[in-house]
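Researcher: I've been going back and forth with a colleague about how TetR family transcriptional regulator might be arranged in three dimensions. Neither of us has a model we trust, so I'd like an independent prediction. The organism is Streptomyces boluensis, in case that matters for your notes. Sequence below.
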Amino acid sequence: MPAAGKSVQILESFTRRVAESGYDGTNFGDIAEELGISKGTIVHHYGTKDRLLAVLHESYMQRRLAEARRILECLSAPADQLAGLLYAFVRYQVHDRHATVAFQRESVRLAGQEMHAEGDRLRDEYLELVRGVMRDGAASGVFRETDVPMQSLLLFGSAQWAWTWFDPEGEKSVDEIGSAFVDLVLGSLLTRRTALARLSDPDGKVAETVRTCLAEAAAAS
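Model: Here is an independent structure prediction for TetR family transcriptional regulator. You can compare it with whatever you and your colleague have in mind.
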């Protein structure tokens, strides 16, 4: 195993194990055995298990922010932009799945600790990005006036628990669920619902733009 790749491989193994077994069910011994290294090598790269979780947190949010910004660049209108972000929320259940499940299942542990301050800052930045789109839509008259902070937390709360029930091999595809999420949210926000069918179309421009943006991000990583 090349020395330069050890830290990445450690993080990938840790992420997968947290997704499958949770933070408490993950230990350095199992990671070391899987990778054929010593526990001391893991400590050398990351120090503690909590530091590994902090790195997972930060790297996850950095990727999501970069993707969200790219989606907003590719979609100009607030309704399209919010629909794109909503599709992405759901699509993360198959895109970067291990990191998404690990992040979502340990979200309570991540919040408010000093070691996770940078991850928290990135999460706040992502949240404000979404709120900015919602405010722009309201200011232009496309969205009805709402309590944006509360509405945005409801959106994130809905997506946050998808890991507990979404099955990638289940009856409903991720595109179908994404379409339903867009229909639910934008159906309540749009002042005129004439664009709703277009925005929630899983084969339409918005959904395809999201798939393209996420695929490009994955290819570049």
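Researcher: What would you highlight for our discussion?
Model: I'd start with this: The chain has twelve helices and no strands. After that, consider the following. The radius of gyration is 19 Å.
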